[in-house]
C-alpha cells in the first residue's frame, strides 16, 4: 500500500488496483466558445489546472498505472439527451446547436475533444457519458470490475458537477476515492471549496482530498 497525507486523514491505496480518472477536460468546458462559456462562465478559471492534470497523468503513465478519461456529450441525433438537460437554464447556445467549435457537446465535434495538453495516449480508456456522473449509462463499472480496480484517484472539471457526481456514484459502489485538489476546478471558487469540504466531512463520507504534491511525495 502507498499512503498519502490527505484530508481528513491518510489515504492508502494499492497501486495495482488503483486507476486515475480524469473527468471532462474537454475543449467545450475549458476553451472559449464552448458549452461552459455559453452558460456565462469565465473558462479561464479552469485553465489553471491544465498543467497539474498533465503532471498527474505523467505520474500514472510513468508508473504504468491505469488511466481513464471521460467526456460529457451526446450522440449526433441527440437521442441520449433528456429534454430536461437540453432545456434547463438560459444558455446562449444549447446542446446540439452549432457554435465556434462545432455542435455543442456532440460526439465527434471539435469542442467535444479532450484538450491537447491532457489528451489520452493509446491504450487509455475514454468513456463517453451522457450525464454528469461517469457511471450513469456507461461501461465504466464493468471495466473497473474486470480489471480488479478498488481505488480511484480523481481529477478534472467541474468540481461540484461532474467530479462530485462521479465521486458520489463511485463511493456508493464501494470505491475508495482520492480527489486531487489542484487538479480539479470550478467556474465558482466557492463551490469548489464547498465540494472539497463536503467530500471529506464526517470522516471522509465521500472520500479524501490531497494536493498533487502529497501524492507525488508518497509515490516517490
Ligand atoms: C458541467 C461538467 N458542469 N463536466 N459538466 O456541466 O462538470
UniProtKB/TrEMBL annotation:
Protein keywords: Hydrolase
Presence of the UniProt keyword Hydrolase in the record: yes
InterPro entries with a match to the protein in the record: Isochorismatase-like_dom, Isochorismatase-like_hydrls, Isochorismatase-like_sf
Keyword Cell membrane in annotation: no
Compositional bias per record (Basic and acidic residues), positions renumbered to this chain: 76-89
Superkingdom of source: Bacteria
Residue ranges constituting the Isochorismatase-like domain according to the UniProt record: 18-206
Chain residue ranges for the region called Disordered: 76-99
Protein name: Nicotinamidase-related amidase
Amino acid at each position: 500500500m502507498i499512503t498519502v497525507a490527505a484530508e481528513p486523514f491518510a489515504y492508502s491505496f494499492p497501486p495495482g488496483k488503483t486507476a486515475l480518472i480524469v473527468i471532462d477536460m474537454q475543449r467545450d468546458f475549458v476553451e472559449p466558445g464552448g458549452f461552459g462559456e455559453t452558460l456565462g462562465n469565465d473558462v479561464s478559471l479552469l485553465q489553471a489546472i491544465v498543467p497539474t492534470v498533465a503532471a498527474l497523468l505523467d505520474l500514472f503513465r510513468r508508473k504504468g498505472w491505469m488511466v481513464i478519461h471521460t467526456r460529457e456529450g451526446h450522440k449526433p441525433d441527440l437521442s441520449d439527451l433528456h429534454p430536461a438537460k437540453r432545456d434547463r437554464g438560459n444558455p446562449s447556445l444549447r446542446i446540439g446547436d452549432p457554435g465556434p467549435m462545432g455542435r455543442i457537446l456532440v460526439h465527434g465535434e471539435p469542442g467535444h475533444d479532450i484538450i491537447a495538453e491532457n489528451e489520452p495516449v493509446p491504450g487509455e480508456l475514454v468513456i463517453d457519458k451522457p450525464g454528469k456522473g461517469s457511471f450513469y449509462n456507461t461501461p465504466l463499472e464493468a471495466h473497473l470490475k474486470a480489471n480488479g480496480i478498488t481505488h480511484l484517484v480523481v481529477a478534472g472539471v467541474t468540481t461540484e458537477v461532474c467530479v462530485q457526481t462521479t465521486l458520489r456514484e463511485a463511493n456508493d459502489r464501494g470505491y475508495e476515492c482520492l480527489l486531487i485538489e489542484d487538479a480539479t476546478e470550478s467556474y465558482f471558487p466557492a463551490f469548489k471549496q464547498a465540494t472539497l469540504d463536503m467530500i471529506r466531512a464526517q470522516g471522509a463520507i465521500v472520500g479524501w482530498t490531497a494536493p498533487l504534491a502529497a501524492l507525488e511525495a508518497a509515490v516517490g
